[in-house]
Design goal:
The chain is an alpha/beta fold and 252 residues long. It is 29% helix and 19% strand. Strand 2, helix 2 and strand 3 form a beta-alpha-beta unit. The structure holds 2-amino-2-deoxy-6-O-phosphono-alpha-D-glucopyranose.
Length: 252
């Protein structure tokens, strides 16, 4: 079942998403959180940091598993997703860093790293809540449009459109890694609940295709229609192509 919550703008999207994550951690202090990178969840992380600083949230029992990492980048590279997570969340809250997990993009044997990552996630019992952003082409994690849904963590070739979209964050397009390690669709779908954040007109088509269109590996996020517990928090711009009579829509 998919529950779509429409917010006025990015800031409200971030506040609503942070409230959902905070509720998860409050109700289960030992939660396993699946976390995402990209510009979309930055506001959500800022809200979580604020709640922690105000004494309203305690991360001491939380463990995290991130979706993906660029292949070839070590955690000290300022565009690595490990670095992103440290600077946007982990360095600012009372989480035990030893319980935060991001695939190791610098691993010499990527295939072994992917297998180990799946074992780690399975060993933790899967995520209680998996946060997801969405690519312009409907990708989740780095699962790009293709002919199949890949089950486990794997190495992917990034599409030209993803390389172009992420080039803004690197000194030049040439520096964007061409490959990444990403949780597979099976790993993502093993989460007990899924929270998608998405904003902006540029994602409107991907939102419509993902939640109102056929389930197809060409739009990887469309698989979420088969998950029992998905909440999408999206701003009005991202929902501009979805017919919504009210600010909340349930797609059963
Ligand atoms: C990257 C990440 C995704 C993210 C996507 C969208 O490709 N691997 O997890 O959802 O970017 O990023 P943004 O939120 O910056 O649009």
């Amino acid at each position: 079942m998919i529950r779509i919550i429409k917010t006025a703008d990015y800031d409200e999207m971030s506040r609503v998403a942070a409230r959902i994550i905070a509720a998860q951690v409050t109700l289960k202090p030992q939660s396993i959180l699946g976390l995402a990178t990209g510009s979309t969840p930055i506001g959500t992380y800022e809200e979580l940091v604020e709640k922690y600083r105000d004494g309203r949230l305690d991360f001491s029992g939380v463990s995290t598993v991130n979706l993906d990492e660029y292949k070839g980048l070590g955690g000290d590279h300022d565009q690595s997703y490990r670095y992103f997570m440290n600077t946007h969340l982990f360095d600012h809250v009372n989480i035990d860093k030893a319980r935060t997990h991001v695939p190791n993009g610098a691993a010499a044997d990527s295939a072994a790293e992917c297998r180990a990552y799946d074992e780690l996630v399975a060993g933790l019992g899967g995520a209680d809540l998996q946060l997801l952003g969405m690519g312009h082409n409907g990708h989740i994690g780095f699962n790009e449009p293709g002919s199949t849904f890949v089950k486990g963590t794997h190495v992917v070739d990034l599409t030209e459109s993803t390389i172009n979209a992420n080039a803004r964050l690197f000194a030049s397009r040439d520096e964007v890694p061409r490959q990444a390690l990403t949780m597979g669709i099976g790993t993502i779908m093993s989460a007990k609940s899924i929270l998608v954040v998405v904003n902006g007109e540029g994602k409107a088509q991907a939102v419509k295709d993902s939640f109102c269109g056929p389930i197809t590996p060409e739009v990887q996020a469309s698989i979420l229609q088969l998950h029992a517990n998905v909440t999408v928090v999206a701003d009005a711009a991202a929902l501009s192509l979805v017919e919504m009579g009210a600010n909340e829509l349930i797609i059963a």
